[in-house]
Design goal:
Layout (H helix, E strand, L loop, with lengths): L1 H26 L5 H20 L4 H18 L4 E7 L2 E6 L4 H5 L6 H13 L9 H23 L4 H6 L1 H23 L4 H41 L1
Antiparallel strand pairs: 1-2
Helix pairs in contact: 1-8, 1-9, 2-6, 5-6
């Protein structure tokens, strides 16, 4: 819980950095202004589908369990049996930690696949004519991830409760924003160096301000305690 509380200022710092990165992305996209709207258009299209058509819950559950498995593999774990159904799923893993447990809530499985396929195809064919459609697909699949993540988090989730709500929500929020920043760097004009500098600057500024507020609060409490003791004596 204490670590989760300590991550709250970082949530704000990452939010500010991502907004600044977005402004930089929009300002430098004048040569291809239509691309700026491709991703939001795909995002909006899925949100409409989500609320109008039957929700593909099983498709989400598959991505959820495969994400657990993928992150376990990346961290040296082994995968056992996996069960997937419309009411939920389960995968047996030889090891776990907070990243493996919370990964499905910040790792957009289908978006990552779409990005990987696009860049792999770029080695064999000219994919530039399909860039707008690809960006729309990125927006659509990311919206798929966001809508189902919010829906799942609105319910009681053992994954979240395992590591505490404050800590889990902070990690999920920060990780999702970092993924957004990574996409901006990969599919847009901002550079990785710009993103990292923004994160560093805003994080230092936020924690410096937070520490000052803590010091002022501590000084105020000490002063009040001293005044109370003087008045009692």
């Amino acid at each position: 819980m204490l670590i989760g509380i300590g991550l709250i200022p970082l949530c704000w710092a990452v939010s500010v950095a991502i907004y600044a990165l977005y402004q930089d992305s929009v300002s430098t996209a004048s040569t291809h202004p239509h691309e700026v709207w491709a991703l939001p258009a795909g995002f909006t299209a899925w949100v409409v589908i989500y609320f109008i058509l039957p929700r593909p819950v099983r498709t989400y559950v598959i991505a959820h369990e495969l994400t657990h498995a993928l992150w376990a593999l990346m961290m040296g774990g082994r995968i056992g049996k996996m069960k997937v159904g419309k009411d939920g799923g389960h995968v047996e893993l030889s090891k776990t930690n907070f990243l493996i447990t919370l990964a499905p809530y910040f790792f957009p499985f289908y978006t990552v696949i779409l990005i990987a396929v696009y860049y792999l195809l770029s080695f064999y064919i000219d994919v530039e004519p399909y860039r707008i459609w690809w960006l729309s697909g990125v927006g659509l699949t990311w919206a798929f991830h966001i809508t189902f993540t919010i829906s799942m988090l609105a319910e009681r989730q053992p994954d979240v409760q395992e590591h505490g709500r404050i800590f889990s929500y902070a990690v999920i929020y920060i990780a999702n924003l970092l993924v957004i920043g990574l996409w901006m760097v990969m599919v847009g004009t901002p550079k990785t160096e710009t993103f990292l500098n923004l994160l560093k600057t805003d994080t230092v500024a936020v924690y410096s301000d937070t520490w000052q507020y803590i010091e002022r609060g501590w000084e105020y409490c000490v002063m009040r305690i001293h005044e109370t003791r003087v008045s009692d004596s």
